[in-house]
Amino acid sequence: MSFSDLFDSGFKKRNEDHFASIVRVAMDDGIITDEEKAFLDRLARRLDISESDYADILKDYKSHPINPPTSYDLRLERLYDLARMVYVDHIKGDHEEIVMRKIAIGLGFSTENVKYVVDKALTLVSNGVDLDTFTEEIKTMNR
Known about the structure:
It is a single chain. By secondary structure, the chain is an all-alpha fold. It has one domain.
């Protein structure tokens, strides 16, 4: 196996785990709506998740660990994806927000400010901001 194969498999695994954590949020209410399915389809293409891997992840999404990205910008990108999924799902309530906080902690956000970060993330996404604005606003909040 070549070095590039090792890198590719690690990159692929991280994308699958990230995708599985988003599926976990989508499945929190037990169903995937048409809007969620469309979002998952777009995200799967963006993360280069194959159709067979997609199906496997849907069946067994809880077996994938939440692997925190090494860079803060990648953590913010993943948080943005999660917040968009929660927004698309019109999730309201303590249980769903607790699930998102757990995933955010798994992504590497501190337990001390995770509630504030998640609340801010959901507010920004509900206001329709793009990834660049989202990233800048969260970074500004944490300075």
